[in-house]
Each structure stands twice: as structure tokens, then as C-alpha cells.
Amino acid sequence: MAAKVYQPDQELETKVKKATERISENMHIVANEPSLAFYRLQEHVRKALPPMVEKRVEVLALQQQLLGRCYDVEYAVSAIKTMHGAGKSFENTLEFIKNAIFFKQQLKYEEQRRHKKDGNRDSVYKRLSAHIATLDHLPDEISDVVRETANRVESMMNHARYSTEVQKPN
């Protein structure tokens, strides 16, 4: 027997070619089917969306912080501008303080001068209290009453003396 030689069958080859083309076309259709495309889009969105949302939240938080800091800077700048305009007020305050110190010194001088003038006269209270110590035979309540009375008499005399001094210059 003789070896069979393969002879291509034209009809068979065309049928095979048509079948492979149909399979290829079907695979192409299945691969590009709309539901499969939506599935792939959904998969992409599911993977890409959470990091994008996190970045958006982070950017919004940074924006809020930036707005707060901008407000702080604007407030500080306006405060500094206001301070530049407050120089006149500080000068007036300094002048008032100087005047107050001067008037206080004048009052202190007048008070010292008045005490020197009054100090030359013997105080009724001093004279009476010098004798009170020798009144040991009296009860303590009475010596306290005498001291209190002497103190009141002296304050009334000083008041009368001061009121007459004030009326004299007029």
C-alpha cells in the first residue's frame, strides 16, 4: 500500500476559515459587550473613587485651615495699622500721667507744708494722751473714752482751722 499523501480539501479549509472567523467575531462581540464595558467601568470607579474622595476631603480641610489663617493674618495686619494710628492716644495718655504725677507732687508738698505748720503747734491729743497714761486708777473703758474724745476734739479743731484757712484767701 502506498502512502497517502495529504491533499488539501478546499471545501474543508473554507469551512474552517469561516468557523474561525465566526468564533473570532463572537469573541470580539463578547469582549466589547456593553454590560462587560459597564462592569469594567464600575471596577475602575470602585478602585479609583475612594482615594479621590479622601484627597477631596483633605483639600477641603486644608482650604478651611487656610481661610482661618488668612483671617488671622488680616486681623493682625488691621491691628498693626490701628496701633500706628494709636500713637496720638499714647502721647495723650503719657501727658496725663505726667500731669497726674506733677499734681500728686504738689499735693504732697502742700500736705507736708501744712503738717509742718500744724506740727509747730502742740496737738491737743498729744497733750491729753500724755496725761491719760498717768490715770491708771481709772478703768480701761474710761481711758479709752478719754482718748476717743481727745481725738474727736483735735479733728474738729483741725477742720475748723482748715476751713478758716480756705476762707482767708477769698
Number of strands: 0
- Average pLDDT reading: 81
Biggest pleated-sheet summary: none
- The oligomeric state is single chain
pLDDT < 50 runs, ≥5 residues: none
N-to-C SSE string, H for helix and E for strand: HHHHH
Beta-sheet strand percentage?
A: under 5%
Could you characterize the architecture of this molecule?
Helices cover 85% and strands 0% of the residues. With 170 residues, the protein is an all-alpha fold. It has one domain.
Question: Which features would summarize this protein structure in a list?
Answer:
single chain; 170 residues; mainly alpha; rod-shaped; BORCS8; Protein MEF2BNB like protein; membrane; lysosome
List the helices and strands and how they pair.
Elements: H1 10-31, H2 34-85, H3 87-120, H4 124-132, H5 140-167
Helix pairs in contact: 4-5
